[in-house]
Amino acid sequence: MTGTEQRTAAPRPPLRSRLLPEPGPGRLLVLCTAVASLGNGLYVTGGAVYFVRVVGLSPAQVGIGLSVAGMVALVLGVPVGYLADRFGPRGTTAVLALCKAAMLISAVFVQSFTTYLLMAAALGTAEQTGHVARGALVSGVMGREGRVKLSAYMRSVFNGGFALASLGAGIVIAIDSRPVYLSLFWGNAAAMVIVSGLYMRLPRVPRKLPQSRAKKAASAVRDVPYILVAQVSGLARIGPTALALGVPLWLVTHTEAPRALAAWLMLINTLMVVFLQVYVARDADTVPGASRLQRWTFLVLAAASAVAGFTQGMPGWAAGLVLAAATVLFTLGEIWGEAARWGLRYELAPEHAQGQYGGVFATGDALAVIAGPLLVTTVPDRLGTLGWLLMAALFLGSLALSGPAVRWAVRTRVTESEESNLQDAETA
């Protein structure tokens, strides 16, 4: 067969196959993600406006509610992950989706800051712990060979659906009517009920209980090397926060670039995530591959921060072009960082405790969730270009920690063959 015939016999796969997994459980999980993303896009974009415009809360009160929700969810991630391991991730994930639907319905009746705070904490907990249980579900359904790639498919689809739903929520905000705002809550609640039913159509994932005393003694909250990897990996999530909050604020207050460019920069980000996330994640299904991607993540985030900082004082057109380049770099850091997180989160955790370890890995988001928004908005605003360079230094420091943290975690893992030997010794 000639070279020309070989190329003809192996055509490039169609676009659909590059954006969706093969038919089966993986595609059903992607469908769950698509439905959830539409509901989330409606609520996240319009919900905050509703609580300010209709309920009468201040923007600061809405922000406090979101922060409290994030902190509560971080604390409860490990217990929920344990429940997913103990009772099965499929049912746990479906129940948490129904809990989220119930909290969205309760949001309709919020009339004060106190009730809002309670609702936001419960809703945020159901949302974030649902991610932990779903991670264990993805691992159980897809196995080691497919879980990282499917995570990439799910994130790609989520970003696309979220962007479309945000446009719809923008129409609701323009109408600015209480009944129309409430449709956002009802729509998201209905989406989560549908998602819960779809989860139950997935294959049942057997509970993976520890069989040896070594496994029984293992606990994610005492696995210091794994926790360190989680904390270092979580620092990469400051990058997307910088792009979503820090760059638009910087563009408006410290550069001559057109203000409308902020929306176009986010469009660049969304399109890159949708079309590149699956491709980028192809090398992240092993610890060495994920570790390498994480090092590239911190390097490119440092470069993006430095590039963004030097736009102060540039002519408007030049500042716009340079900020577009910074956006590309921030987005590369985002998609590389997420792929690296999946690989490290799954591969460094024991197979019988993916839920529990996933909850611990989620604690690595603490700094990005709690301090990230303040860091990316205040430091560049107060210090100008120096502030962005300090952020670049933070990412370079994370780069220095990344390799040693992963190597320490690898050295302390118990391999499958060692676990089998321990079991054989106990039964002998």
UniProtKB/TrEMBL annotation:
Pfam families registered for this protein in UniProt: MFS_1
Protein topology in the membrane: Multi-pass membrane protein
GO cellular component: plasma membrane
Location in the cell: Cell membrane
Top-level lineage group: Bacteria
Entry annotated with the keyword Nucleotidyltransferase: no
Transmembrane intervals: 28-52, 64-83, 95-118, 157-175, 181-202, 223-249, 261-281, 293-311, 317-336, 357-376, 388-410
Listed SUPFAM superfamilies: MFS general substrate transporter (SSF103473)
Predominant place of localization: membrane
Keyword set, alphabetical order: Cell membrane, Membrane, Transmembrane, Transmembrane helix, Transport
GO molecular function terms attached to this record: transmembrane transporter activity
Protein name: MFS transporter
Source organism (scientific name): Streptomyces agglomeratus
